[in-house]
Amino acid sequence: MNRRPRHARTHSGLFGRLQSPWMPVAALLAALSTPAMAQAPAAEPPPPRSQLDGRLLEQLLDVELAARQGQWRSAFDVLLDAGRRTRDEGLFRRAFEMALAGRSADHALQATRAWRQVKPDAVEAVRLEVHVLLLTQRLEDLGETLRQLLRLTPPAERSALIAGLPRFLSAPEEKSRVLAAAQHALAPFVDAAGTRVAARAALARLSLAADLPDDALTLTRKVLAEDPRALDGLRVALELMNSRPEAEALVMRYLDSRGAALPVRVAYAQQLSEASRLVEAGQQLRRVVAEAPDMASAWFTLGGTLLQIHQPQEAEAALRRYLSLSEKSEATAGEATATAADPELQETPTATPRQRERIEAAQDQARLWLAQALEQRRQPTQAQAELDLIPRERWTLEVVTRRAQLQAGRGELEAALRMVRETPVKEDVSPRHRVLAQVQVLREAKQWQRAYDLLLGLLRETPEDSGVTYELAMTAERLQRLEDMEVLLRRVISLKPDDASAFNALGYSLADRNLRLEEAESLLQRAIKLSPADPYIIDSLGWVNYRLGRLQAARELLEKSIARRPHAEVGAHLGEVLWQQGHHAQALERFRQAQAMEPDNEVLQETLKRLQVRL
Question: DSSP character for 171?
């Protein structure tokens, strides 16, 4: 039952975010002059002759002196008045700088608005105002100012600016208000011939961010109906796949077309993987490496995917191919760890020190996976040899734990535990993580009571830790302390009501023991609502249906689970259902497949013994 992976996701914005609400104007102008925001023409007409006279020049010198002495507000007023009289944009710009230095959003907006009154077509003033409104969350004024910026942008550059808006607007938390501002800004462009694809794609992404997936899907359909190869529309469709399955058809229509871009197929495989549809993800990645055999990143991902679906021999081949490609040169290795969301590693022909560090981390991860694949193939000596290739100064806690597990497998358990407790690692590791690593070693050595004692001691120190509580529950189950397990899982649910793994573990335990089946089904229905694609929860639902006598429903669920992520335990369940349906030949085939994946799986062995099946 100890089979509930946890995941974490991170995202970043396209335009990037300023590190603080205010910054020097030069840096702010640089931030505002990214390709998506710098929409001024390449060549601008020369500025008009300055209308500053000698008296005004003296005043401005006094202004600068006052500003240096901290009296920036009076200096600001003089600059603004001079700007209005002379129509000199440099004076407004300097007033804006002073407002920034004084950390006054109100004065910064006053400067840009006075500037725009004098020079209505001053793109720089509008850009600065947009950014200040966004940084200060003044979303009620953002839409109209953005619309003006779009109007001032040359038509040839307008679609690029529109396409960048979703990332530029990613910072504010009030996503519905951001969407409303964007809708107002884009209203003149959403049906215009030159901008409607970009505008609808931007609104689709912002609708998705505002938790309006149906609106996002409607807009995405319009985008792809007009331009089936619009990458911005395809990105939204990919993100919608898990919540709106019909979006997948939009992606597949593109992937089935001639000349489909490989990054889209890789992104599709990633979405499949995140939905635990690992078999399908592997199929897509095989197509990628067949078409681009030198794409190291695809071999890397394929190897990790195949390892998860218990195909260690093919996983080993893929990972060795990755290492071969990544070690050819720093340029190839730079590509090896790059993804469509990580352009930094794609732009430099040779790896920087930071990139080199990331490349090495990816290579170390590949060797860790290789060691696991070799362990699955019962080749511990070769697995140890792979781990030995990771330099000691790059050891992480995961590397140390894997080495310790191999050492424990050789009968050196105490030395293995000491290794996990004491070996220096490159990252900062808390005592909690050291204890959990020891628990991992003890579990693999089937030292359940010692693992239980360690976890219990850790939980006494951190009684609100739902993760430790869950691990203790799973260890209690191994010790047949089933009442303790149930109490602990209910404690996890109270601490973390959205933890699908706890609902699943408790529901499955009841179903497996043929107890309180209606309650078990209710718990599993709650789990599947929290994590609809999890193949382990689908397996649990199949098993409770089997216990309730619904053989056909059980079979369909178990087949769905194993098609997404093959696992020996799921194969044992499906084989038993087929056996009870009288499909003995199919059941035997499922049992054999499960045995090939994991010969010593306890559920499989118990099932074969109970059904008196010999393979």
Answer: S
At 206, the amino acid letter reads: L
pLDDT digits (tens, 9 = 90+) for 274-293: 888 999 999 999 999 999 99
Measured CA to CA, the distance from residue 250 to residue 271 in angstroms comes to: 14
DSSP helix/strand/coil, 583:
coil
Residues 71-107 pLDDT 10s: 677 778 878 888 888 898 988 988 898 888 888 889 9
Domain count for the chain: 1
Domain assignment present for residue 417? The answer is: no
The Cα–Cα gap between 312 and 331 comes to: 29
* Distance separating alpha carbons of residues 156 and 149, to the nearest angstrom: 14
DSSP string, 398-446: HHHHHHHHHHHHTT-HHHHHHHHHH---SS---HHHHHHHHHHHHHHTT
How far apart CA 345 and CA 328 sit, in angstroms, is 16
Q: Tell me if 561 is assigned to some domain.
A: no
From CA 445, how far away is CA 463, in angstroms rounded? 27
**Rounded to 5, what percent of the chain is helix, strand, coil?**
70, 0, 30
- The candidate with the shortest Cα–Cα distance to 289, out of 309, 311, 268, 265, is 265
Packing angle, helices 448-461 and 431-444, rounded to 10: 160
| 407 domain residue, yes or no | no
The answer to the question of residue 477 being in a domain is: yes
Can you give the pTM of this predicted structure?
0.77
**Boundaries of domain holding 486:** 446-497
* Integer Cα distance of 189 and 183 in angstroms: 10
**Placement of tokens 């056996």 in the chain:** 579
